[in-house]
Amino acid sequence: MQLPEKFLERMRAMLGSEYEAFLRSYDDPPCTGIRVNPLKRTEAVSGFIKDLEPVPWCAEGFYTDKSIISGTHPYHIGGAFYFQEPSAMAAVSALPIEEGDFVLDLCAAPGGKATHAGAALNNTGLLMANEIVPRRAEILAENIERFGLRNAVVTNENPARLAEKYPEYFDKIIVDAPCSGEGMFRREPRAVTEWSPEHADSCAARQRNILDSAVKLLKNGGLLLYSTCTFSEEENEDNVCYMIEKLGMSLVNISLKGVSEGINMPEALRIFPHRSRGEGHFAALLRKNHGGIGINYEPKRDRAADEAMKLYRKFENEALNIHLEGTPCLFGGRLYLAHTDVDRIKTLRPGLFLGECKKNRFEPSHALALALSAEDFKSTLSPDDDELDKYLHGEVVDFDGKGYAAVIYGQLPIGWGKASGGVLKNHFPKKLRLK
């Protein structure tokens, strides 16, 4: 790989005697891994991953590659794990999320850190996952739904607009900031061609603008996890110093296995590819030492949503063994359980998508199937390999039953079907079907 000379000069100055080992690491293939979803860690899933090597800094992380498991595997389709670069798993591992917390991932696409945080919340509190780029926000929403998170809101907003709407609202905030991508050169060669010292400096300035808004969103005493996938001190330690000196934050020590300290900042963490099995990464944890606690924005109710909820309750009584609580919200004709007020906020998903009301009947969503456990369904089909293949390709399968049933693989729901006339009509989403 032909790396920029000015980048090499900076890394030589940073690493000294380790520089040659750092260069040799670019001859190795990039690391890949999966992070297991603890909300869906069934016995079958645990058996599948038992021989994989753990990632030292993440309890749910494992090294693997797509020759072992791919995106078409039913466990991935059912949200049992997330493909994630191993170093990227360190950030949320360093953030002490507690059940009931209100957590914001401010730059969340494609969803690795947001799903990690959501799993830690265990369907309590609130997860708001925001992405400013519309197409990336759609991918984020898809990954949130696949992970089965019931308490997640997905927004598509400028951080400054969120700060206006939700001042001092969140207990924990993740800022995985857009960066110059130096740590991903081995994985994404395009980042090499886009790199320059000026680009790194412009990224640092943009990151400070994002951090200005992030601190406004954080409660007094709240924690902010700042991370990047770059080696640049301007984008990493210098921005941490900016938060301390200008934004009233203080560093909190990070203690994780297998990582290195920040440059002249032992409380922070760095991952270098010649020291650890992972790409370049940086993270720092900071506490806000001023301000207050913002008001709680309860989701608004309306009569139309309450009427739609009656149809859902009828479906729930017929098809499910679980009673879901929450505030109903009709959003673009779809019925959700909302988790906060999103009035005048660009929102893709205000909460758990239950389904749609069509001609006085309720049609459950794929998201609802993935948000439940196998025992939550009154009627299920556990297909053999041939039936599973048919189902994932959008075909009908033989089934003796009536009404909606969940298709279960390895104790994991992967979608809906509707029984009629001795077959299960396929309700697996067309855009997800295998070709």
What does this structure look like?
The protein is globular. The protein has three domains: about 5-290, Rossmann fold (3-Layer(aba) Sandwich), CATH 3.40.50; about 295-370; about 375-435, Roll (Archaeosine Trna-guanine Transglycosylase, Chain: A, domain 4). The mean pLDDT is about 95. The strands form four sheets. Strands 5, 6, 7, 8, 9, 10, 11, 12, 13 and 16 form a ten-stranded mixed beta sheet that branches. Strands 19-21-22-23-20 form a five-stranded mixed beta sheet. The protein has a four-stranded antiparallel beta sheet with strand order 2-3-1-4, with helices on one face. The chain is an alpha+beta fold. It is built from 14 helices and 23 strands. The chain has helices at about 5-15, 20-25, 45-50, 75, 90-95, 110-120, 135-145, 160-165, 190-195, 195-215, 235-245, 305-320, 365-370, 385-390, and strands spanning about 35, 55, 60-65, 80-85, 100-105, 125-130, 150-155, 170-175, 220-230, 250, 260, 265-270, 280-290, 325-330, 335-340, 345-350, 350-360, 360-365, 380, 395-400, 405-410, 410-420, 425. Helix 8 packs parallel to helix 10. A hairpin with a 2-residue loop joins strand 14 (about 325-330) and strand 15 (about 335-340).
